[in-house]
Structure formats: structure tokens, C-alpha cells
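Appendix C reproduces, verbatim, an entry submitted by the partner laboratory led by Prof. M.T., so that reviewers can inspect both the input and the predicted structure.
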Amino acid sequence: MGNFLSPWKMKYIRQITLLLILWPATGMATAAEPLTVSYFERPPYYYTDAVGEPGGFLLERTRNILRQAGVEAKFLALTPYQILYVLRHAMVPHCSIGWFKNAQREQFAKFSEPIYRNRDLVLLTTKAQLPRFSDLKTLRAIFSDRHLTMARMGGFSYGSYVDDLLEKLTPKTLFLAGEQGCLLRAVAAQRASYMLVAPEEIDTLIGLTGLSAGAVVAIPLADVPVGNLRYLMCNRAVTDETLEQLNRTIDKLYPLQTAD
């Protein structure tokens, strides 16, 4: 996902930002301005359900954290591009659910305590392509094999270890836009050899693509560290007091071991 944005997309993002800036400041327990909480469509973590309501197990966890902390919030579905733009530019308090923390994002955002740890990342391929991985046990070896193509969405982080390895080894890559299901569809069509995914997402991906469970194979990777931590990523308009209030609630409800 590059840095170029078409004029219509920039106009739409600016409209979203203006909406957030002008949002009525009513009914908040912690500030005169409302806290908006955004998410993008990534089931099973967070998504908009069939009747237009926010859903997903990590969104419900966030809703519970906010409720227990006494912070009223309004959930808002945006694209990842829009979320990052809003976090950089909106002047009202805003948080987004489930992001990985890295140095680049810490330059413009504040992070809560972790709200969830993913299960260990796996490689996902099809049964038809499985023999191509028979002698490859590590992600380093897979990234170094120029006969293999990774399907991925630009702009997404896989965690510091994998991101560093991607930058260093530059594996052959098919970049796609859209939702996660398009990656697995590309693997199924043999336009790509594999994708990387947290195990929590596999059943949802299979459902989105219509593949049979027996056609998809998850391969553990010997060199991948323990699962990535997910956080609430907030803009600078969220006060330290509000963030501390959320952190105390997170530590109480969902304490996590943060060491790798």
C-alpha cells in the first residue's frame, strides 16, 4: 500500500476528518469532546454485521473496556487509510482498535496497554501447493526462495520480526487491495504461493472464499516469535488521563504477558 492517494480518495478522507473535528461534544465522562473509536472490516476481530452494527470479538472486548472505564464512545467503520489519516490530523479524541505497535506509528499516536495477543503467525497455502514447502521450515528460508510468491496487502504490519525480514529479504510479492479474502483467493488460483495469517482468522477466510477446509493448509514457522500484541492506537488529542483510565481497566480485565 503506497503513499499515493487519488484526488477523490483524499477528498473523502478530508470529509471524514472534518466530520470528526465537528462532532458534537456531548455526554462524555472523561472530556468535553466525544471519543470516537474506529475499526476496519477484518473479521473475526471487528466488522460491521448484517444489520449494520459493529461486531467482532475484539470489538466487543474494547466495548467492555470502555464501559468498565466509564468512557462513552461511538464506533465508526473506516478504511485503514482513513484511520491513519484521522489519527494524524483529527483534533478530537480518537482511538482505533487492534493495531500493532511499531516505531513509525509511535511518532504520531499513543498506544494503550495491549488488549489481545494473537496466536503465533502461520503460513497459509493450499493442499495443491503444499509440496513446494516440504523442505522449508522457516520464514527466512521461504522469503529467500524466489520461486515462491507471497500474497499481501500493502501498509499492514505483521509485527516487528516479520516486517524487518520483509524489508531485508524482499520476497517476491503480489500486492492486493481489498479484504483478507482476496489474498487466499489469489493463493487458491495459484497467482501467489502463500499468505501469512494469525490462526484466529483462518476459518473466517475459508468462509469468505468458499473453499473447502480440506483444500487449505496452515504451516507453522519455526523462526516466528510468539503472537503479536494488539493495542488501542489513539491520537494525541486523547489525554494521558483518559489513556491511564483505559490502561487500568485493561490491566484489570485482560492482563497479558507482554514479554516475547
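Residues 45 and 112 are 17 Å apart (CA to CA). Additional entries are available on request from the coordinating office.
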